[in-house]
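so the lab meeting is tmrw and i was supposed to have these ready like two days ago... anyway. pasting both below. for each one the top line is the aa sequence and the line under it is the C-alpha cells. i havent really looked at them closely yet so no promises
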Amino acid sequence: MSRFRRTSGGVSARYPKLRPSRLVAALALVLALFYGLSRIHTLPPQADSIVVVTVYDGDSILLSDGRKIRYIGIDAPETGGYRPAEYYGEQSRSLNSDLVLGKSVLIATDVETTDGYGRTLAYVFVDDILVNEALIRAGAALARPYPPNLSYQDLFCDAMKEARIEERGMWANTDAWMIPQSDADEYIGLSKTVVGTVIASDLTTSGVFLNFGFDYATDFTVFIPKGDLDAFYRNGIDDPAREYRGEQIEVIGTITEKNGPSIRITSPCQIHIRP
C-alpha cells in the first residue's frame, strides 16, 4: 500500500491506489456538507458493493451475502448481548443504521482481512462517506488503532480530536462512560477509557511504563512497547515517559491483567492529557 502525504487540510491517511475524480469529489462535497458528518474520500477501486441487511451495533453489520463486517479502526460502545451494554450504545447503533441499513455499500479491506470471530474487517463507504470516520466524528465511536490495519489511523484520530473539542455525542458526558484507574480491575478483558494521574514513569529496554497507583489496590499501568515509540516521535513526543509524568490522562484500550490492571497502547491517539 502507498501512503498519503499530509495535505493542507491536515488529513493524513493512506489509500490503496486511489484515482481522484473531480466530478466525484464535487458530488461528495455536496453530500458531506449535507450530512455534516464526514470528510470526502475517493472510493477505493476493486471494492465490493453489497446491501446492508442488519446493523448489530455501532461498529458491526451484516451484508446480504452473509458476511459479517467489523469496522476497522473504531470502537463503538456495546449494546448488550455477550458484553454488558454501555453508555451511548443504542445511539451509536441508531446512527450506524441511519447511514447504512438497507443501502448498497462499498467495502475495502486492509492488511488483515478477518478477525478472530471470522468477521470481515473493512472500511465501509456509502454515498461517498467513509462510515468508520463519520461515526467517530459524530462522537458515536472512538478511534482505536488495531495494527497492522492502520490505513486511516491519522484521519480517525483527527476526527476523534474534533468530536472531543466540539463535545459531540458521548463526548458531551465523559463521566458517564470513562472509568477511574481504581476501578480498572473490574473490567479485565474489556475495551475501556481509563482516567488517572501518572505518578511515575520509566523508559526501559522493552518500552515506556506509566504508573498510576501507589499500591496494588490502586495500581494501574500503561505500557508503550519499544517498537511503537516511533509513532510518538513522529507526533512530536520525543520523551513519552516525561511527557505524561504528573499529568491526568485518559487512556483508551483493552484492560488486561499483568501484575495488576494494564493497558498496552500503540499510538498517541490512545492518550489524551486533560487540561
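ok protien two:
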Amino acid sequence: MAYQAKSAIAGLGISEVGKVYGRSATSFALEAIDRALEDAGLKKEHLDGLLMQSGISQPGIGLQLQNAAGLKSLRLVNHMNAMGATPASMVQYATMAIQNGLASTVACVFADAPMRDPGASSSAGMNAARGNRPPPSGFASLDLYYGPMNPNAGYAMAARRHMATYGTTSQQLGAIAVSTRAWAVNNPIAQFRTPITIEDHQNSR
C-alpha cells in the first residue's frame, strides 16, 4: 500500500539577506510571509497557523507578528525555540497540527536583524561581547572564559566528538558545505554564490 501524504511544504519565502542595515526582524518576517504565500499561490486568509522563532536581536518577533501581518483566521499560534533545531521542529509541529485537524495551512517563520551599522559579518555572533546585551553572569559566564563566543564553538565540539566516535572525516563534513553552496549558487538572493570544492574547504581557515 502506498503512503498517502497529508501535508506538504507548498511555498518558500526568503527575505532580503546578507549585510542589511536599518530593518527590523518584523519587517523581514512580513516580507518572508508574503513571498511564501505568493510562491504557494495562497492568500493571507488561507493561513490558520503561525509558528515563529526570534533570533538574537532585540526586539525580535513575537505574538504581535500576527497583527502586523494582518492574520485574522489563526487557529494555531506558537513561539518556538529549540535553538538551531527550531526549523525542523517547526515543520514537525506543523505537520502534526495539520494531520490532527488543528490547522490546515501553517506559516513557519524565523526572523532576525542583528546587524548594527557599521557592522561586520561577525556582529551577529558577537552581540554580547560588543555590549548590545548584558553579558551572562554566574555559571552561564564560564564558557566565555574559555573562548566560545557563539554557537559555532559548540557545534565544533559536537563535530569532534562525532569524529572520535564514528571516524567521521573533515572531508566528509566538507561535502556538506560543498553541496550546500551548490544550492546557494542557484539562489539569486543568497549571500555567497561562488561554487566551492572539497579542496577549497580543506584549505579554508
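from a quick look at the 2nd one: The longest helix spans residues 25-40. The chain has two domains: 25-111, 138-203. will dig more after coffe
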